[in-house]
Amino acid sequence: MEILRMKHIKKSFDGLEVLKDISISVEEGEVLAIIGPSGSGKSTIMRCAVMLETIDGGEIEYIGGKAAWTDAAGKVQYADHAALKEIRRDYGMVFQNFQLFPHYSVLKNVMDAPLRVQKRERSEVEKEARALLEKMGLADKADAYPYQLSGGQQQRVSIARALAMNPKILFFDEPTSALDPELTGDILRVIKNLAAEHMTMVIVTHEMNFAKNVADKIIFMEHGVILSEGTPEEVFDESNARLQEFLGRYEAD
Amino acid sequence: MSTAMIFQQLAGGMLKSISIFCWTLLFSLPLGFLIAFGRMSKVKIFGRFRIIRGITKLYIDIMRGTPLMLQLMVVFYGPFFLWGADIGGFRYPAIIIAFSINYAAYFAEIYRSGIESMPKGQYEAAEVLGYTKAQTFIHIILPQVIKRVLPAVTNEMVTLVKDTSLAFSLAYMEMFTIAKQIAAKETTFVPFAVAAVFYFIFNWIVSTGMTKVEEKLNYYR
Ligand SMILES: Nc1ncnc2c1ncn2[C@@H]1O[C@H](COP(=O)(O)OP(=O)(O)OP(=O)(O)O)[C@@H](O)[C@H]1O
Ligand SMILES: [Mg+2]
Asked: Is the distance from the beta carbon of residue A13 to the nearest atom of ligand 1 less than 6 Å?
């Protein structure tokens, strides 16, 4: 069952074509890793998927419905407000620099959207939020404020915040690149555990070994196109000259 | 006239100064938000002119670019010169209106810079979580903006305490106007000394109070 399908996505920023015909599909329970050099459009495709950017062409469809499509005249149409609101329930996102709400305690960060947006019952939300914090190893930090936490802890709170909405698919845009190297392992472990629970995820990452280990499918992007795509074994194949060059340059950094 | 009597006469004026201060804040603090929104409006006419933005920008420039004393005169005497209106009982409302629209312009610029200093990521995180635009502003953005602008707002409040004395230009019997009259009639410096102490204590209370509020908001960073 497909959770997300993006077809022939095009996106330009003032004349600069950043995405040229990108198609992606994500099956339920699948982990997709997107890799590629800086500026290749990885963040942009993800931001299009979660509708923080509007596409210039193509189609976005979630399991809950069609979010955007291109009409016969070549013009992109988005679903109406109510439909988009419904579709937004399908996904969550974890940002590179966490974007926790600094004026809310850790617990409130996790509970606020389920209460305010989903209008769920408080006692049930709190129970679930505490369980999520427990799972993230942050049970004792429920009453702390984000500034009192390390980057790794903040990122785990933001993962808990996203999970509290019970999304069908979770997007991560370089979830470890704002962290000190010794803290990245923490986050990667959390994501790996989610993968073991068959959480559907799309992860933009520069951690090649992690991508190889955790992903079911890898997409290698450059200059707004997909250069290669497949299982980790297929994509990291020795004969893939362009990828080998990228990896070589990457390891040289 | 004894010092006690001078003080007694001044006391009534003090209350009026305090009331100018309070009413001005009551109106200008929220009005500033309205103007700040206008200043950031993206509404266009003819597909290119940002009409609301232009109007509010002009308003702010006029309010900040001309003397408050002049604005007091315009607001008070304006209705008479324009329509021959009877402005007899209009003195006090005119003062409140002039102060409020003037301070709202300053507050608007403070709010605007506060709102614009908020990282885009906070809006984006809220949007992906499904908050509506109104929920995002009221629950996520506004509390953080208030914390950010508090020191600048305190500065304006301290200035406002001193600016209340400008009401003397409309011969309104606030503290400073009375002090001047007594000083002239009795050829004594005492009322000015009392006035100085009054403004000083008033401001001390204002800034101490605001520091308390700032400390209250220091539970997060
Ligand atoms: N809002 C924007 N306005 C203009 N140009 C943009 C905008 N967002 C991205 N770009 C441009 O689009 C291109 C792709 O950016 P994107 O952030 O998707 O790359 P990326 O693959 O995520 O890179 P990185 O690995 O550095 O995060 C870049 O050239 C970038 O400068
Ligand atoms: Mg990026």
From this structure: yes
